[in-house]
Amino acid sequence: KKLAVFVSGGGSNFRAIHEATVEGSIYGDVTVLVTDKPSCGGAEYARDNEIPVILFPKGKSISEGLSPDDLVSTLRNFEVDFILLAGFLKLIPVELVRAYPRSILNIHPSLLPAFGGKGFYGLNVHKAVVASGARYSGPTVHFVDEHYDTGRILAQRVVPVLANDTAEQLAARVLQQEHQIYVEVVSALCEERIIWREDGVPLIRRKE
Ligand code: GRF
Questions:
Q1: Ligand 1: which residue has its CA nearest to atom 2?
Q2: Using one digit for the tens of pLDDT, what is the confidence trace for 164-190?
Q3: What's the farthest any 2 CA atoms get from each other in the chain?
Q4: How many domains does the chain have?
Q5: 3-state DSSP helix/strand/coil % of the chain, to nearest 5
Q6: Which of 5, 102, 168, 195 has the greatest count of CB atoms below 10 A from its CB?
Q7: Which among 47, 31, 39 has a CA at the least distance from the CA of 8?
């Protein structure tokens, strides 16, 4: 399968996924990287690994670079099967959501629906978790719709919040688990091991 990864930051999840494709635990290839921040760590890693980098449409009315429709056709030209958001901060245009039904995933660093939605990104999420007194947090992988963090939940992993955790310490503990769970889920996606329950909930079938 052909994967497009979208990043805005350091790209450690992107790296984990790319390494898994190279080493063969994901049956797929990262065919293209999309970013709104061409100088971010993720884009740099893509260039180092000869993965083409394309710029995400900027602005709503004046489109600098690609329009959402151009982005869709560019991804089609790359024959992209699945889109993986990995620390990508912009909202996905509805054109893209419609063009890739049940094919766009995001990873979020809390147990959704808690601590999700606009404003909950990066360290903010972990700060809010620590401040709330919640005893558990952890990553959620979910399908993407046209809103922030509201698409169908596909997988989660529980990570304890320790009594004296700082947001940074919690973030690091959650991020380690993000890398593992995202690789597992993308491997299931590429092997067509996602089944949709009648009520629209996606489930992962274990490897035989
Ligand atoms: C991760 O915590 C991810 O869940 C969130 O942004 C962070 C990205 O980290 N959406 P990286 O760029 O993959 O290192």
A1: 109
A2: 999 999 999 999 999 999 999 999 999
A3: 50
A4: 1
A5: 35, 20, 45
A6: 5
A7: 39
Q: Is the ipTM of this complex over 0.90?
A: yes
CATH number (domain holding residue 128): 3.40.50.170
Residue 198 Cα to ligand 1 middle (Å): 31
Position in ligand 1 atom list of the atom nearest CA 106 = 10
Q: What is the β-pairing status of strands 104-108 and 140-143? A: antiparallel
**Residue whose tokens read 């007194």:** 133
Q: How many CA atoms lie within 13 A of 94 on its CB side?
A: 2
The helix (H) or strand (E) run that includes residue 32 is: strand 29-35
Q: How far apart are CA 65 and CA 55, in angstroms?
A: 7
pTM: 0.95
Ligand 1 center–CA 97 separation, angstroms: 21
